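Retro notes (design track)

What went well: tokenization of the new backbones is finally stable.
What didn't: we kept losing track of which sequence belonged to which structure.
Fix going forward: every design gets posted as structure first, then sequence, in one message. First example under the new rule, 425 residues:
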């Protein structure tokens, strides 16, 4: 999706007022693959005349190859430093800019999505200039961006140029080429605009929030996007927040896989295909019209997976899912009936027994792209308000959940690779 919007930007030169430009924001995979294009390098032979163009071509090849290598196995983020702290307005700035809107960015290194290094060699003072015009709070993002000196129009006579960067502020989510340094939630009624957070894990209005900074690290093999199916069943959203806990746990427990940052809510009439996994829970049986059945059938054939998480007593839901699988000619079988090396049982975690929920063992059945969990598996993925559930039960359930996510991702990938165009994401 692509759209344009006016966004206020900060200037790297803190003595200058801020201005607005048209910013193009592209919503896409957070860690896109490198462009699929052949590499071209300078062919060297005896007698070749060395020119600036040929020299530049040879060095551009090495840089592009290095960036391609980084993009292929790593994800962008902060390598070290780049801390942000609240400061008083510098004395040398004009009086009109001496207010409580100043922060200082510490030296450090980051790498952007293209594999370019962002090196901040010295502290930088920066003033947030976002205008607060109404009562609604505004989230402001402070970001760093790589700048290629060849594109800045510097003097061509200089023998040495320094790769540089730009510090900006955004009132929308950063572009994928930018590295977030911090964010802050502002409101117009606030008297003291910026301040150091009292609790760094739960910053309030006007307090610097560093919780969403990405660290440069190994790139996950796959991204799993998940949506919960909404229905008229009042119990259908019972485990929604537990789904978010599972998605957060994926990267820590199994770094080769990454869960999407948000869990979406959709209906049977919505677009199902962007998601590797659909989650459904509740008490009522499935009741799909012809159009909804056709959409679900197409989704499953294209590589999608439907996880139905049924409480033990929800007989209508269990029977309707089993009937649906029969109708699709993919009858559900328990883990005891399927092959011993079934991926739900062994990848990435090996299971000889399934987790317990309220004294009863979870049951898992699968067929085609449908997985039926009986016993409220999702109830084990999140917080137990009474703190009575054992850590072993929680971790076992999360590992089983990761097996399900891995199954959904691998199934979608395998079917995509056999389709026209293949899978490149």
């Amino acid at each position: 999706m692509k759209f344009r919007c006016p966004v206020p930007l900060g200037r790297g030169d803190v003595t200058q007022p801020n201005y607005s430009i048209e910013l193009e924001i592209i919503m896409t995979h957070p860690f896109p693959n490198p462009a699929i294009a052949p590499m071209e390098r300078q062919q060297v032979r005896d007698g070749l005349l060395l020119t600036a163009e040929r020299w530049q071509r040879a060095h551009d090849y090495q840089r592009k190859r290095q960036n391609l290598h980084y993009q292929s196995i790593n994800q962008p983020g902060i390598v070290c430093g780049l801390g942000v702290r609240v400061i008083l307005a510098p004395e040398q700035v004009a009086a009109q800019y001496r207010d409580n809107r100043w922060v200082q960015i510490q030296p450090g290194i980051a790498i952007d999505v293209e594999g370019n290094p962002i090196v901040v060699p010295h502290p930088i003072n920066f003033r947030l200039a976002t205008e607060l015009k109404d009562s609604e709070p505004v989230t402001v993002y402070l970001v760093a961006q790589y700048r290629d000196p060849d594109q800045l129009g510097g003097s061509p006579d200089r023998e040495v140029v320094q790769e540089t960067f730009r510090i900006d502020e955004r009132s929308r989510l950063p572009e994928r080429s930018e590295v977030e340094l911090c964010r802050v939630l502002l409101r117009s009624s606030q008297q003291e605009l910026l301040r150091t957070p009292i609790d760094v894990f739960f910053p309030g209005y006007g307090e610097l929030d560093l919780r969403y900074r990405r660290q440069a690290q190994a790139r996950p093999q796959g991204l799993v996007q998940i949506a919960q199916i909404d229905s008229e069943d009042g119990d259908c959203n019972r485990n929604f927040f537990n789904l978010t806990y599972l998605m957060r746990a994926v990267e820590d427990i199994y770094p080769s896989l990454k869960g999407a940052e948000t869990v979406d809510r959709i209906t049977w009439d919505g677009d199902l295909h962007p998601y590797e996994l659909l989650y459904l829970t509740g008490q009522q049986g499935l009741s799909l019209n012809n159009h909804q059945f056709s959409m679900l059938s197409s989704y499953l054939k294209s590589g999608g997976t439907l996880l139905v998480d049924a409480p033990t007593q929800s007989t209508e839901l269990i029977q309707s899912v089993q009937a649906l699988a029969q109708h699709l000619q993919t009858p559900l079988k328990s883990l005891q009936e399927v092959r011993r090396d079934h991926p739900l049982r062994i990848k990435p975690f090996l299971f000889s027994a399934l987790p317990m929920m309220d004294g009863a063992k979870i049951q898992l059945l699968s067929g085609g792209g449908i997985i039926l969990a009986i016993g409220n598996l999702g109830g084990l993925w999140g917080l137990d308000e009474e703190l009575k559930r054992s850590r072993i039960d929680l971790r076992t359930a999360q590992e089983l959940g990761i097996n399900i996510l891995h199954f959904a991702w691998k199934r979608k990938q395998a079917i995509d690779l056999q389709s026209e165009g293949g899978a490149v994401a």
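Added context from the reviewer: The longest strand covers residues 138-147.
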